[in-house]
UniProtKB/TrEMBL annotation:
Keywords recorded for this protein, A-Z: Plasmid, Signal
Residues annotated as signal peptide: 1-22
Annotated protein name in UniProt: Type-F conjugative transfer system pilin assembly protein TrbC
InterPro entries linked: T4SS_TrbC, T4SS_TrbC_subgr
One Pfam family cited in the UniProt record for this chain: TrbC_Ftype
Length: 143
C-alpha cells in the first residue's frame, strides 16, 4: 500500500521530463523562450517553499536536478511533506536543463531568449532577479 501511495503522489507532485531523461535535449533546445527556476532539497524546507511559491505565482516552473538520494519513494515523501505543510504544487525533475544551462548551484533563475540565456544565482526576491535580467542581461528587452 505504501508503494502505491508514493506512486500516486509522484504523479501529482513530480513531473519527470521523459525527453530529458532520454538525453536527446529536444525539450530544452526546441524551447526558444523560457524562464525556469532551479532549486534543490538541500535548501531548508521553509526557504524552499517560499521560493517555490514565488515561482508558482509567476507561472515559472521549478526544477530539481534529480531524485533525492536517487530514490523515488524518498522524493515522493519529501514532496508530500512540502505540499501538505507549505501548500506548494511540486517540481519537475530535469537533469538536462541543469546541464544545458550549466547550473551548478541553487537557487538559480534562468531566462532563455532565442540562442541566449541569462542566469542569476542566489537567494533573492524573484522580482529582483527578473529585474536584473531584464535590465542588464543578454535577454534585455527580449520576450
Amino acid at each position: 500500500m505504501k508503494r502505491l501511495n508514493a506512486a500516486l503522489l509522484c504523479s501529482t507532485c513530480l513531473s519527470v521530463s521523459l525527453s530529458a531523461l532520454a538525453g536527446d535535449g529536444t525539450q530544452v533546445s526546441s524551447t526558444e523562450n523560457e524562464t525556469a527556476y532551479f532549486l534543490s532539497s538541500s535548501l531548508p524546507d521553509k526557504e524552499l517553499a517560499l521560493l517555490m511559491k514565488s515561482a508558482e505565482a509567476k507561472n515559472i516552473p521549478v526544477y530539481f536536478r534529480g531524485l533525492i538520494n536517487d530514490n523515488m519513494d524518498q522524493t515522493a515523501k519529501y514532496m508530500l511533506n512540502l505540499i501538505t505543510t507549505y501548500k506548494v504544487r511540486g517540481v519537475q525533475i530535469d537533469p538536462v536543463r541543469f546541464e544545458r544551462y550549466g547550473v551548478k548551484q541553487v537557487p538559480a533563475l534562468v531566462k532563455k531568449c532565442g540562442d541566449h540565456f541569462d542566469i542569476v544565482y542566489g537567494n533573492l526576491a524573484l522580482n529582483q532577479a527578473l529585474d536584473m535580467i531584464n535590465q542588464r542581461g543578454d535577454c534585455h528587452n527580449r520576450p
